[in-house]
Amino acid sequence: MFLLSRKNEETMDWARSWKDTLFLLLEDVPYYLRELTASISIDGTSATTLIVNSTTGEPLWKPFLYNESCSDALPTVKSIAPENHTVCSGSSTLCKLISWWNQEDSDKKSAILLHQADWLLWLLHGKLGVSDYNNALKVGYDPELDAYPSWLLSQPYSQLLPSVKAPGTSIGHIKEDIGSQYGFPKDCLVCTGTTDSIAAFLAARATQPGKAVTSLGSTLAIKLLSTTRIEDARFGVYSHRLDDKWLVGGASNTGGAILRQIFTDEQLVALSEKINPVEASPLDYYPLQTVGERFPVADPKMAPRLQPRPESDVEFLHGIFESIARIEAKGYSLLKELGATQVEEVFTAGGGAKNEKWTKIRERVLGLPVSCATQTEAAYGAALLALKGAQQNK
């Protein structure tokens, strides 16, 4: 049984649905490939946070989703963290941890914090309390020091923090019962994961500073390979470590989710065909599903703007595409202003990468070459991490 005590929330049991989906995916792997699988890794949504029982791994609370703001904890975070640190945002993992910690009925003595990818990987390897330095960034882990900072370790809730390894590090072999049930070899390794946008970057194989990947999934996330580390919570900008370089960027709440809220997949295809991407749309929108934005400005009170709506759905879609492209351009411009390596080329991952008209609009707005990455799925990047773990373990 999951212990779900959170009130006034949607009835969806997210953790159970993720668990069920994981094992359905294992079943979908052709049996002959399962026998050949050397290692497994998983990418998950950054700052999607679970508080689980430190013995059983069962969730003590409904997961805090990536875009959920815990602004009640923000004053506490700002009082302990360096100014404009990545955690100084209501949607940070640390804000979510503190918000939970302050609940009267929270079970503080037998709890541990995990991220979405951490928890799903635990279901496979069985060693509770392991994370990676990409997922741990928004709880306050310092990837430059490769340690939790002293200002965080001095807090009483630091006892909930997981141990941290580099992404793609072997944790252990797949649990014997899971391996036997699904047909994976006993020596199949389970490796630390990463966030979904970093996995998408790895999939694109953008290996030189100045190369960037925009992930157009349900949200818009940009990652630029830079020689300089940039952090500024005022704008939702942060840097992930990638070996000896930095992936700088941020994630906006705009993206494909708002498109699917308005149009069906069939409509998106049909309407896109009628758009002239060379012409700029005069419509100025800020497409969001709900109130709140994370990047290129962190404003939990920002309201969606999708008015005026023209009579033509083609013009309306054109305006949304153009407006999301402007948000993307503002993001890359901001990174340059803050001192990151100048962006030279953008690869696109995620579902939005398939829309050629949108790509041409973005190329015009960004003033940069934009192309679809050879591999556009974050899962491919997670597979590369698994390969890395297997090679390091030889």
Automatic annotation (TrEMBL):
The keyword Transmembrane does not apply. Residues 236-387 form the Carbohydrate kinase FGGY C-terminal domain. Belongs to the FGGY kinase family. Keywords: Kinase, Transferase. The gene is LOC107426625. It comes from the Eukaryota. This is D-ribulose kinase isoform X2. The keyword ATP-binding does not apply. One of its GO terms (molecular function) is kinase activity. CDD domains: ASKHA_NBD_FGGY_SePSK_AtXK1-like. InterPro entries: ATPase_NBD, FGGY_C.
